[in-house]
Amino acid sequence: MGHNTESHLAGKVALVTGGSRGIGKAIAGCLAGAGAKVMITSRKAEACEATVAELAAETGGDLAYEAGNVGRVEDMERVIGATIETFGALDILVNNAATNPYAGPTIDVDLPRWQKTLDVNLTAPLAWIQFCWNAWMKEHGGNIVNISSVGAFHTNQILGTYDITKSALLHLTRQLAAELAPGVRVNAVCPGLVKTDFARALWADGRGDEVAQGYPLKRLGEPEDIAQAVLFLASDASSWITGQEIVADGGGEVGFPHG
Fold it and tell me: Reduced to 3 states, what is the DSSP secondary structure of residue 64?
């Protein structure tokens, strides 16, 4: 193959939001395994602490955590400050944290839950990027990966509100890729259905098997599948790619029509 993934990110510092479980945890472990120093953040310090201990043991990597609310400005500043103070840089930001407080027709969504979905899934990624840009990347360069969803491309009877924010996140990705080049690359990953606690309602009790049969690759995603796509975009292997999204969905986008 010619590439040693264990040294892909040697000397780089990464920050992963929503990094204590699920896809975020897999991303943190993958980046640490590739040689990056990794800061994770999520709301609960105990969960972060346990994840850091587990991933450090698994990867032999250098990881730390700073707990905080992904949507709170003062927490963003504190987490970014702690990252630079702890590791001396901030080369990679992965906007992974997301919320989905409402399921149902978008026409019926109450405005407080609409606003919360927008705040966490769209406004917060912008704010994290702004702070990282001003604190480090404007001067030193960097790399940003936003986690969107295949839902960004389709309508959905119950996930429309969530999917609208993920669609907007893709346009934000393209817009900031244009604005922050050439020093900073901005890309996105769009997962299909991945077996996480966050998406449990969509795959538990055998429902996932039915979905998997609609995918050409005949299986649901694992967090590691998304982490590997992030690793590619975060590394110099993708140095001529910006403003793009990688769809990681077992072939669902090409395999069958969505409604």
Answer: strand
In the residue annotation, 65 being an active-site residue is answered as no
Q: Rounded to the nearest 5°, which phi and psi values hold at 93? A: -115, 130
Return phi, psi of residue 46, to 5°: -65, -40
* Separation CA 223–CA 193 (nearest Å): 10
The catalytic residue among 65, 102, 162, 215 is 162
Q: Give the integer Cα–Cα distance in Å for 162 and 160.
A: 5
5-248, which class in CATH? alpha beta
Question: Residue 259: its pLDDT value, please?
Answer: 42
Write the CB contacts of 28 (distance below 8 Å, at least 6 apart in sequence).
14, 16, 19, 38, 40, 51, 55, 63
How far is Cα 76 from Cα 58, in angstroms, rounded to an integer?
Answer: 28
Tell me the domain boundaries of the chain.
5-248
Render pLDDT for 86-120 as a digit per residue (tens, 0 to 9).
Answer: 999 999 999 999 999 999 999 999 999 999 999 99
Give the pLDDT of residue 210.
79
Residue 102 CA to residue 158 CA, distance in Å, equals: 8
- Most distant CA pair in the chain: distance in Å? 53
> DSSP letters along 87-151, please?
HS---EEEE--------S-GGG--HHHHHHHHIIIIIHHHHHHHHHIIIIIHHH-EEEEEE--GG
Q: Using CA atoms, how far apart are residues 249 and 259, in angstroms rounded to an integer?
A: 16
Residue 145, CA distances (Å) to 90, 96, 189, 223 in order: 13, 8, 7, 15
pTM of this structure:
0.94
